[in-house]
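Batch manifest line 331
LIGAND: zinc ion
JOB: complex structure
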Amino acid sequence: MAERTEWVERAEWVADGVAMLEIWFGQTAIMACYLIEGASRRAIVDTGTTSSPSQGLVPALARLGRRIEDIDLVVNTHGHIDHAWGNGEFKRLAPHATTSLHAADTFLRHPDALARFWHRRRVAAGDVGPEAAAAHAQQLADLAHADPHFPEPDANHAGGDAVDLGGGQVIEIIHTPGHTPGSCSFYVPRAKALLSGDSLTGSAGSGRFPLLSDVVAYRSTVLAVQRLDVEFVGPAHRYPFRPPLGAVETPARHGDLARRFLADTLTTALDIEAGAVEAWQSDRHAPRAAMVTEAVRRTGERIGVDLSGNEHARAAAGLWLEAIGGAPSGA
Ligand SMILES: [Zn+2]
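JOB STATUS: finished
ARTIFACT:
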C-alpha cells in the first residue's frame, strides 16, 4: 500500500457556521474535528493526535480559507489520543488559543490512565485472572513518571456551560459520560447541530462496537440527548447505523439521518444492557467469562450482527454484569 501523504479527507461546511474537518492520523485511522464560527470568535472541537494540528488541521482550515492562528479556543470532547493529544502542538501553532476539557477527563493526561482503563475492561469481561494484576501493577509503575500526553487545559468546562462566539452563535456544553467520565457533547442551537465526539457511538458493525468505560452512564447519556432538536449530528468517527443501513462513509449526519443516528444509538445501548441481563437470568451461576460470551451472543442477535470475539462487546457486557451485581468475579 502506498504511504499516505494527504491527511485531509474532507473540509466542508455542514451547518450554519459549522464546518467538519475529517483528517487522517497514521496510515489507516481517521477522525473529524469541527470548526464553529461566530461573529467575534472561532472555536475548534478537538485537535486530533500529536501530529494532527500541523499535518491535518492547517491544510483542512486552508481549504476553507481559514488559518489556525485565527482560532480562539479549543474545546475538547474528551481526553483520548485522537481528540486532546494535539492540544500541545495546536497551542504552538495558535499561541493565543485557549483549551478547555471537562475536569473528569484530565486524568487521561497521565500515561498510566489508559493502561488502567484497558486492564479494567479485560477484568470485567472475565478474560484475565488475578495473575495479570502483578504484571499490570509493574506496567503502571513504569508509566507513572512518563511525560503527560497533553498539557494541562487552560480551563475546565462542565455540563450547563455556554460559550458565546458572538452574533448569536453559542455552544452549549452537555456532559455526556459513558465513553469516558468527562466526555462532553457540544450543541450549537442556531445551527441545530450536535457535535458529539465519541459520546454517541452508534450501533455495532463488522469489527466495530461502542467503546465504553461506564455502561450505566452511557445509557443515561443516550437517553438524555434524544430531547435535542437536531438537524445535524457530527460524531468524531464514522459510527455505524443499525442494520440494514450499517456503515456510512462519512461522520456527517443530516436531517432524518441525524435523528436516526440518535435513535439507533439508544436502541443499541438498550440491547447491550438487555443482552447482559438475559444472560444473567438464563444461568445465574455461570462463570464470568461464559456469562459474558452469552451476553455478547444475545446482544449481537438483537442488533443483527455477529459480535463473537469482539473485545469491546465483551467489555461492555462485563461492565453491565458488574453493574447489576450479577456475575461471579475472576476468570
Ligand atoms: Zn475516545
